[in-house]
Amino acid sequence: MSWSGLCRQLTYTSTMTLQPYKTMARYCSTIWQHPYSGFGVMSRFCLTICFSRILRTVSFMSTVLPSPRPGCYRRRFPPPPDTVWGMIKVGIKQLRGFGGCNDLVFSGHGAFWTLGPLTFQTYYPNRLSTSLLWIALIQTSIRDVIDKQHYSVDMFLAVVATWAVWDWLEWVYPPSQPLPPRPKEQPGDKPNPYVLAVVAFGLLTAAVAVFVAKS
Predict the structure, then answer these.
(1) Is residue 124 a contact partner of residue 34, using CB atoms and an 8 Å limit?
(2) Burial category of 76 from C-beta neighbours within 10 Å (exposed 0-12, middle 13-18, buried 19 and up)
(3) Category of 148 on φ-ψ map: left (φ > 0), alpha (ψ -120 to 50) or beta
(4) Where is 1: in which H helix or E strand?
(5) Is residue 139 packed enough to be buried (19+ CB in 10 Å), middle (13-18) or exposed (0-12)?
(6) Which of 36-45, 115-124, 186-195, 199-208 has the lowest mean pLDDT?
(7) Any residues with CB less than 8 A from the CB of 53 and at least 6 apart, and which?
(8) Local confidence band at 20 (pLDDT 50, 70, 90 cut-offs)
(9) Which of 4, 87, 108, 202 is most buried, by CB atoms within 10 Å?
């Protein structure tokens, strides 16, 4: 891989894959003090993933679009076996991941990435960080279209659908119910090294997975 390709890959990894994990790290660690319950925020976060995935399953099962990437089926799937036993062996012996060729409407990655800026916009309304996250989302969405991973309509619908589910699930943990302020004389919580280790391992695993998938 050339240096330019490596730089592009690092940008792809940092903005596209690590964005949701940065959000989870923020609300699952005591390093960053904020007025909301980490469990409450992550409950809404995870439920949004769950329901948006259900919508996505229904969506791509009821739509048929050709893959924008030429030769997708030939690269990702082996030739279909001639016998029933051959079909069974393929299903058991050959594990395949990183998506198919027609699960396009709407983008599952786009739905996941959208949760980053939505979470910050709702529970951490800092204009600078929220704006940067939305810009990162736009950049990665354009990147997916240019790389022929998805159509532009897939990315747009991912944002719209995820945002709708997020707003619908406001009752899970409304932003109008922050935690009571900590007394001034009470010391802050100490960071849990085990939680930090789990977060670091998750970030490293995500980065390695993206490099392996794209190599």
Answers:
(1) yes
(2) middle
(3) left
(4) none
(5) middle
(6) 186-195
(7) 108, 111
(8) low
(9) 108
Rounded Cα distance, 55 and 58, in Å: 5
- Do 141 and 110 touch, CB atoms closer than 8 A? yes
Contacts of residue 147, defined as CB under 8 A and 6 or more positions apart, other chains included, come to none
Q: Scanning the structure block, which residue is given the tokens 């229904």? A: 58
State the Rg of the chain over Cα: 20
112: tokens are 């996941």
From the list 172, 212, 211, 206, the residue with the least C-alpha distance to 24 is 206
Instruction: Retrieve residue 157's tokens.
Output: 């619908």
Cis peptide before 39 (omega within 30 of 0): no
CB within 8 Å of 69: residues ≥ 6 apart: 101, 148, 149
Residue 154 · residue 106 · CB < 8 Å? yes
HEC secondary structure over 99-160: CCCCCCCCCHHHHHHHHHHHHHHHHCCCHHHHHHHHHHHHHHHHHHHHCCCCCHHHHHHHHH
**Tokens read off for 17:** 């894959």
Q: Give the integer Cα–Cα distance in Å for 151 and 104.
A: 8
- What pLDDT digit, counting tens, does each position of 64-96 carry? 777 787 877 777 776 777 888 777 777 666 655
The SS3 assignment for 91 reads helix
